[in-house]
C-alpha cells in the first residue's frame, strides 16, 4: 500500500531525474558551444565581436537541435499513423470477413429450413 511519503519520494525521484537530464543537456550544449565558438573565431576576422560570434553559434546550435527534434517527431508521427491505418485496415478486413461468414451461415440455415419443409416434414397440428 502506498503511503504519502512513497508518492512524495516518487515525485522527488522524477524531479531529480528531470533536473539531471536538464543539467546534462546544458553541459553538453555549453561544451559544444565553447568548442564551436573557438573554431569559428579561428576562421573569422578579428574585428567581429565575441558576443556576436557566441550569439550566432548558440542560435545555430539551437536551430540544429530543433531541426533534429522535428525530424525525430516526424518519424514518430509517421510510425504512429502507419500503425493507426494498419489497425483500421485489419479491423475493416476482420469486420468484412465476419459479415460474410455470418451471411453465409444465415443462408445455410435458410436452406436447411427449406429442405426440411420440402422433404415432407409437416407441422404438427
TrEMBL record:
It comes from the Eukaryota. The chain crosses the membrane at residues 43-66, 72-94. GO terms for biological process: negative regulation of photomorphogenesis; regulation of abscisic acid-activated signaling pathway. InterPro entries: SHW1. Keywords: Membrane, Transmembrane, Transmembrane helix. The keyword Transmembrane helix applies. This is Protein SHORT HYPOCOTYL IN WHITE LIGHT 1. The gene is LOC106777178.
